[in-house]
Amino acid sequence: MRIVTGTPNQRGITLLELVIAIVVLSVGTLAVMRTLDQSRRQIGEASARLLALSVAQNRAEELGVIGMLRGRNLPMQVQQGPYLWSISQIGKKTEAGLYEVSITVSAPDLPGAMLVSYAPAKVLP
Predict the structure, then answer these.
(1) Is the pTM of this model over 0.90?
(2) CB of 67 within 8 A of CB of 123?
């Protein structure tokens, strides 16, 4: 005895159609997962880049307050957030008597920042 449901023209989905549908959905899911992973990485790098820029801006403010001559004695490594930042500052004296200071901040395996600022040679009391 054979039980037939529906009309003879109706056929269910075959096993092959089901396998193809699963493969297509899997490929789409993998693409979405890769996109999410890339977004997560870029957001993580942005926060590190923001911290590096903050360190550079802090150094520029310090040099503006204490002057370039005393600022050469500032520490070349600073802890901010979970990272230890290395700071490089190169100053060139301008005709106006100010120093044009290039401040570069970096940490291993992280994006850094570079900032150019002007600082006096020394601050008057």
Answers:
(1) no
(2) yes
Residues whose CB falls within 8 Å of the CB of residue 53, separated by 6 or more in sequence, listed in order = 105, 113, 115
The domain spans of the chain are: 15-120
Residues 6+ apart with CB under 8 A from 112: 49, 52, 104, 105, 106
pLDDT: which is higher, 69 or 123: 69
Phi, psi of 41 (to 5 degrees): -65, -45
Per-residue b or e along 50-59, where b marks 16 or more CB atoms closer than 10 Å to that residue's CB: ebbbebbeeb
Q: 86-102 b/e with 16+ CB inside 10 Å = b?
A: ebebebeeeeeebbebe
